[in-house]
Design a protein that fits this description.
Layout: H1 3-20, E1 39-42, E2 82-85, E3 90-97, E4 106-110, H2 121-135, E5 144-148, E6 157-158, H3 171-189, E7 196-201, H4 203-212, E8 221-227, H5 231-237, H6 241-246, E9 251-252, H7 255-265, H8 271-277, E10 282-285, E11 290-293, H9 304-307, H10 311-317, E12 321-327, H11 334-341, E13 346-350, H12 357-360, H13 362-377
Parallel strand pairs: 1-13, 4-5, 4-7, 7-8, 8-12, 12-13
Antiparallel strand pairs: 2-3, 3-5, 3-6, 9-11, 10-11
Helix pairs in contact: 2-13, 3-4
C-alpha cells in the first residue's frame, strides 16, 4: 500500500469517525459498533509472518504463570468426537459447541499449519459470551462453533495406529478432508435454517476458500472468513520458512515450558488462550520423557508452494459473502487491493495483533465475526435490521481481549 493510499485511507476513516460519532481514542469508552463496514482498522505490535510466526520481543498481554491446573477442552466445547473418514484411513479429533437454536449461526473452523482445533477455543468462548449478552431475553441466536485437528495435527490420527500413513499434506488433501467433515457435520447437526460460515486461519484460510467452490450447493453456507493470510506475502515468506523451523526447540521438559516459550517468543500473546491451545501441539516421548512436537513441519515442506496458489483471486471469486481479517495494514496484494476497492469483501485490520489473531484478539475477533454474520443475514438476532455503513472506527477499549 503506497503512502498516498494509506493517507487517503486514514483520511476516510477520520471522516467516517466524525460522521458516525466514533473514535480511536483508547482512553474514551464507547459501546461496540452495531454495523459491519467494508474496512475496519483497530489497534488490537507489528504483524507477524502469515504461515508460522517468528518469535518477537514485542510487548505481550500476559499474566504471570501459575501452578494452577491447565484448562481442558470441555471448558470451551460440549463435545469432542472422533470422526472417521474411512476412505482416507483417517480419524479426526473434532470439537463442537452447538448453537442455541435452529436459526443460530454456526462457524466451521480450520486452523493453520502446526496448530490445532483448540486454537479457536477462546474465540468460541468469547463469541458465545458476546452473543448471550447482546441477545438478552432472546437466547435463540447464540452461535455454534465446530473445530477439528487437521490431518497430522493434534489428536487426529490414522485409523491404523501401528502404521501412520499421514504423509500427504498437499492442499487438495486438506480441501478434501474439510469438504468431507463439513458435509457430514452439516448433515448431522445443522438445520436448513442454520446459517453456516467457513472460517480459516492462515493455511486454514486457504483451505476454506478453495473448498467453498465445492460446497456451494449447501444452502446453509452464507460466508467465508479468512484470518491473516495473503497469497503474495505467504509465498514470499516461504523461502525463509525452513530456516525458521530449524530454530524451533526440539523438545520441552514440561507442558508449561512449551507454553512459556510460545509466550516469551511472541508466537501467542495471550496466556489464557495459550494454556488451552499449546498443549495440543506436543506429546510426551516415553523414551526421553520429554515433550516433542506432534507434527514435524519439515515433513510439509514439499507442499508449501501449492498451499496458497491463486488464493487471492479465488477469495475474490468465492461464491459467498467474504470477510478478511489481517494483522497489519501493508500486506494486501494486487488482487486483494482491487477487490477491496470494488467492494468484493469486507476487510478488518487489527493493528497490534500477532499472527494468531483468534488467540491474541479473541474478543475483538468475536465482535467482528458476529457483526459480519449480522450484516450478511440482515438481523442483529433481536429482530432489528442492521444498518450497513461503509466505514467506521473501532474504539480500542471496547474490544480489549
Amino acid at each position: 500500500m503506497s503512502s498516498f493510499q494509506r493517507n487517503l485511507f486514514q483520511k476516510k476513516l477520520r471522516e467516517a469517525e466524525a460522521s458516525l460519532g466514533l473514535n480511536f481514542n483508547e482512553d474514551e469508552e464507547a459501546p461496540p459498533p452495531t454495523a459491519s463496514p467494508h474496512t475496519i482498522t483497530t489497534n488490537c505490535a507489528s504483524p507477524t509472518p502469515p504461515i508460522f510466526s517468528n518469535p518477537t520481543s514485542s510487548s505481550l498481554r500476559t499474566a504471570k504463570p501459575t501452578n494452577q491446573t491447565l484448562p481442558t477442552w470441555d471448558q470451551f466445547f460440549s463435545h469432542n468426537d472422533n470422526v472417521t473418514y474411512q476412505e482416507k484411513g483417517l480419524q479426526f479429533q473434532t470439537y463442537y459447541e452447538p448453537p442455541s437454536s435452529s436459526t443460530s449461526p454456526v462457524f466451521i473452523c480450520h486452523h493453520g499449519a502446526g496448530s490445532s482445533g483448540l486454537t479457536f477455543a477462546m474465540f468460541t468462548k468469547q463469541i458465545r459470551h458476546i452473543m448471550e449478552e447482546q441477545s438478552q431475553d432472546n437466547q435463540d441466536c447464540i452461535a455454534g462453533v465446530y473445530s477439528f485437528d487437521a490431518r497430522g495435527h493434534g489428536l487426529s490420527t490414522s485409523i491404523d495406529k501401528d502404521h501412520d500413513p499421514v504423509t500427504d499434506f498437499g492442499i487438495d488433501y486438506f480441501i478434501d478432508d474439510f469438504c468431507y467433515l463439513t458435509r457430514r457435520f452439516i448433515q448431522e447437526h445443522c438445520k436448513p435454517t442454520n446459517p453456516v460460515y467457513l472460517l480459516g486461519h492462515s493455511l486454514g484460510g486457504s483451505v476454506v476458500t478453495k473448498a467453498s467452490f465445492s460446497l456451494k450447493d449447501l444452502v446453509q453456507i452464507k460466508g467465508v472468513i479468512m484470518i491473516d493470510i495473503v497469497e503474495e506475502t505467504a509465498v514470499r515468506s516461504l523461502s525463509g520458512m525452513y530456516q525458521y523451523i530449524n530454530t524451533l526447540p526440539s523438545q520441552f521438559a514440561t507442558v508449561q515450558d512449551c507454553i512459556d516459550w510460545h509466550i516469551k517468543s511472541g508466537l501467542v500473546r495471550d496466556r489464557s488462550s495459550a494454556e488451552i491451545s499449546i498443549p495440543s501441539l506436543i506429546r510426551l516421548n516415553p523414551v526421553t520423557n520429554k515433550y516433542q512436537w506432534i507434527l514435524d513441519l519439515r515433513k510439509t515442506q514439499s507442499y508449501w508452494n501449492d498451499w496458497f496458489t491463486s488464493l487471492s483471486s479465488q477469495f475474490i471469486r468465492a461464491p459467498f459473502s467474504k470477510l478478511l481479517v489481517l494483522a497489519g495494514t501493508d500486506n494486501l496484494d494486487k488482487d486483494l487491493m482491487i477487490g477491496q476497492m470494488q467492494g468484493k469483501y469486507q476487510l478488518v485490520v487489527f493493528q497490534d495483533s500477532g499472527h494468531f489473531v483468534q488467540e491474541d484478539c479473541s474478543s475483538r475477533l468475536a465482535y467482528t465475526v458476529m457483526e459480519f454474520y449480522q450484516r450478511t443475514c440482515g438481523s442483529a438476532g433481536n429482530g432489528s435490521e442492521v444498518k450497513i455503513k461503509t466505514n467506521w472506527g473501532m474504539n480500542k477499549k471496547s474490544y480489549q481481549k
